[in-house]
Fold:
Amino acid sequence: MDDADTVGALHRALLERFGETVEAPAGLAGLAGLDELLRMATHATHRAWTDRAVEPGLVRLLTGCALGAPSKSYLQQADVVDLRDPVLRREVEALVPSMPWIADAPALLVVCGNGRRFRRLFERRGLPFTNEHLDGFFNPTVDAALVMMNLIRAAEAVGLACCPISVLRDRAARLAELLCMPAHVFPIGGLCLGWPAGRRDVNPRLPLSATLHVDRFGEDRDGTLDDAAIDAFDARYVTAQSGRRPPGAGPSKSWSDERATQYATAQREDWGDFVRAQGFDTR
Ligand SMILES: Cc1cc2nc3c(=O)[nH]c(=O)nc-3n(C[C@H](O)[C@H](O)[C@H](O)COP(=O)(O)O)c2cc1C
Structure:
């Protein structure tokens, strides 16, 4: 594809994603990295894979690229576990039987926040650790999320498809035990990797007019502007989903109905207990 084709494809992808035109600045053609922007704009989570293996060497390369993510105060509080032992892998998969795409995935990683190393710097110097509060949990969480995102970017760059798996955190204590996580280490989620078994449609997002703010949130303190954006998004979502449903399946629920149903019962109520049991003070 030449630059003009890539810019055209980027426009179409963003229109499909946001339901509104995202104007390209003049001179966009000719900028480096347009292919990468197009890849990001067409991102889709996958849950079906071919039988082709994902070589451990490739996982190592992708992880090496991902772990170069920025790190809060250069504290390097993110680790990745590549699950290669088939017996251990089966045990981890068995924690989430409701998601068979985890067992099907050629590779499964677990991305972790690691607050242990930071504390060791102090222990080794015989110094008290003076940052035992919520920020001490939040920082490794953010570092780990950036590494997870970088892993997805790296994997998608070479043509792999991914599915993050936060549902593994439903069984966080058992997962921590299986993976021998020390105190102050916790999973933020799993990541399935595989070669995609097919194409996936792009999932729409709320329009930039609702989620990209210039200078301040000011106008929407009571949430009514957001209500309008949500209603419009719901309509767009139903249309997008209807085209994807099998014949006779009837109309899709709206995005807000689906999300409200999904969270109608409390989820992962024991997560705070797990985090505190790993040694974090979450005040
Ligand atoms: C932190 C995080 C956790 C997720 N956990 C799961 C999961 O447990 N199982 C799953 O099938 N998808 C999971 N997903 C994928 C989301 O469902 C998906 O990103 C969302 O539906 C939007 O689809 P898209 O990525 O194709 O745009 C997760 C995504 C993120 C960012």
User: Anything to note?
Assistant: Residues 134-157 form the longest helix (24 residues). The radius of gyration is 21 Å.
